[in-house]
């Protein structure tokens, strides 16, 4: 009798049990290639998300300042005046009037807190000694409208201090280094102490290196002497950003690094060379990529008029403004 299996052929090879070394190496190479393609894209997506979040926070601060201005005769916050500042502001000749000393209460931090605790001197509170001295000095000062001051100007206009820290801000410099805080006494960008910014959790933490933004004081909401809205609050640089030292415009802050261009943001700033988010005097917020100093504050030049400059109609307008960090 014929076998039922006689028509079947025996298997000629064994079933494969896994990858060969060559196949494994090919798979690894493909995975590495995909990772190399995807990681930069993911990094760009994260950077774009942080840039968008920063823009939102910048816009929120603009709303807070606009609310403040509605309570203060259209003026955005101007910090209390020293006697020297009052003299400079009240010059009999309007063309000679200057806004100065806006850094006295810790710069931009003074808008929110009087009692910043410096990292290098935790036993000292505030920028000029003990908390009681700072409070008394602030209360005794008057602003340019001769109004008394008892609290930081923006106290009560923001909910918490988280909006003061940009998610992209991973480094800053410490420019206090003593009891004085001014453009002339601040160390250079190259020699200032490196810091790692942390979102402020209390008024004591609201100090310049924990704040990711700069402020340009001296504007009103109803500006009649500028053609286009001007930048009000936006991303700082890692330089001191005090008065004429803003945007690396002082030679001291470019010493030893010829790649630093005055007026431009650098690769180590919040958003690198992408630029900076700013909220403007009309309330809109946008990314600024150009030379900020030249675009917004260059003197009027009839041969090459710059409509965005605050000096287009009044060549002395920028003298009554001051950048603080």
Summarize this structure as a short list of keywords or feature phrases.
single chain; 325 residues; alpha+beta; 7 strands; 9% strand
Describe the structure in your own words:
- The chain is an alpha+beta fold.
- It is built from four helices and seven strands.
- It has helices at 21-70, 83-89, 131-140, 292-297; strands at 172-174, 193-195, 213-217, 231-235, 276-280, 285-288, 322-324.
- The protein is globular and about 90 Å long.
Q: Brief description of this entry?
A:
By secondary structure, the protein is an alpha+beta fold.
Coarse shape: globular
Order of helices and strands: HHHEEEEEEHE
The number of domains is 1
Strand content of the residues, in percent? 5-15%
Terminal residue distance? 103 Å
Rounded Rg: 28 Å
Please bin the fraction of helical residues: 10-25%
Give the structural class: alpha+beta
Q: Largest sheet, if any?
A: 5 strands, antiparallel
SSE arrangement:
Blueprint: H1 21-70, H2 83-89, H3 131-140, E1 172-174, E2 193-195, E3 213-217, E4 231-235, E5 276-280, E6 285-288, H4 292-297, E7 322-324
Antiparallel strand pairs: 1-2, 3-4, 3-7, 4-5, 5-6
